[in-house]
């Protein structure tokens, strides 16, 4: 809730005219409590998670050949009931774990200093903070994920996320409730260390969620804007991790590729890509080989 009763009062306090975005924010948030504004995150989770994966899921069901050639595991087709079950289970997870976690973390959000007032952050401030959040999330997630692939972590917690060996967008948050809690830590560590405006926090959770959906989409589109992000792993990088499954010692990072490169956990993936490239070159005359990548090799030599 803003401490000003009118736009004029806000302008007087800031000593300048409000920008159009600040006027918009004033009109929207002036009478709303900080807790209510923070709870928007839950709504965003439901909204984006339900809508963003839909086009690809519909394409998967229709299996258009134009789009099918970009599918990473073309021989795996999930049924409509598999998709409904995945969506239903994740919705249950939202209601029982993610929602309550969001509600309960509000005191921490206030404590670290996430602000809701004016002035609004500049575009550069938002971009830099999001960059820091992504780096922290990626690094923390890498080590936690790698830990979850030990015998205990996998059998007790992480095996649920790997039920989908050829993931779809809806499977991005499909996991055991304890994994959601554990991986929530690196997600929130960035905003805790570099606190910003609540709008930046909303954007962070939305973009991170959309990124996870793309990573689990099962499709690698050459025209995806994410292709221009340096060291970005994308769907191909993480899909391979799911393809290999519980035995995987490759591609633990959730967003970028450099952690796997630095710590040597992408050797199996690189070996696989090299093998694939060689086979494609060898059999380039056969159109049958197009897009059959993961059927050629399922070896994941232990690399750490
Ligand atoms: Zn894993
Ligand atoms: Zn995954």
Automatic annotation (TrEMBL):
* GO CC, one annotated term: membrane
Q: Name one GO molecular function term.
A: iron ion binding
Q: Where in the cell is it found?
A: Membrane
Q: Which domain of life is it from?
A: Eukaryota
Domain Fatty acid hydroxylase intervals? 131-265
Grouped into one coarse class, the protein's main location is membrane
Q: Name one GO biological process term.
A: lipid biosynthetic process
Classification via PANTHER family: STEROL DESATURASE (PTHR11863)
The family assignment reads: Belongs to the sterol desaturase family.
Q: What is this protein called?
A: Fatty acid hydroxylase domain-containing protein
Source species of the chain: Nelumbo nucifera (Sacred lotus)
């Amino acid at each position: 809730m803003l401490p000003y009763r009118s736009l004029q009062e806000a302008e007087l306090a800031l000593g300048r005219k409000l920008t159009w975005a600040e006027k918009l924010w004033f009109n929207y948030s002036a009478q709303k409590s900080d807790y209510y504004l923070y709870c928007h995150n839950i709504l965003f989770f439901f909204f984006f998670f339900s809508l963003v994966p839909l086009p690809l899921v519909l394409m998967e069901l229709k299996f258009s050949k134009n789009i099918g050639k970009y599918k990473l595991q073309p021989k795996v087709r999930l049924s409509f009931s598999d998709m409904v079950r995945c969506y239903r289970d994740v919705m249950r997870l939202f209601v029982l774990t993610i929602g309550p976690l969001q509600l309960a973390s509000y005191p921490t959000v206030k404590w670290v200093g996430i602000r809701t007032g004016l002035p609004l952050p500049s575009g550069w401030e938002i971009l830099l903070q999001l960059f820091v959040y992504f780096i922290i999330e990626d690094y923390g997630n890498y080590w936690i994920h790698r830990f979850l692939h030990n015998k205990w972590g996998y059998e007790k917690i992480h095996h649920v996320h790997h039920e989908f060996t050829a993931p779809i967008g809806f499977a991005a948050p499909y996991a055991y409730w304890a994994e959601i809690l554990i991986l929530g830590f690196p997600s929130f560590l960035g905003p805790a260390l570099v606190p910003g405006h609540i709008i930046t926090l909303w954007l962070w959770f939305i973009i991170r969620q959309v990124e996870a959906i793309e990573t689990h989409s099962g499709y690698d589109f050459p025209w995806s804007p994410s292709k221009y992000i340096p060291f970005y792993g994308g769907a191909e990088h993480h899909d391979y991790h799911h393809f290999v499954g519980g035995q995987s010692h490759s591609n633990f990072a959730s967003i970028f590729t450099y952690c796997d490169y630095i710590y040597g956990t992408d050797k199996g993936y690189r070996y696989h890509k090299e093998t694939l490239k060689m086979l494609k070159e060898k059999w380039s005359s056969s159109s049958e080989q197009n897009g059959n990548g993961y059927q050629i090799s399922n070896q994941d030599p232990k690399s750490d």
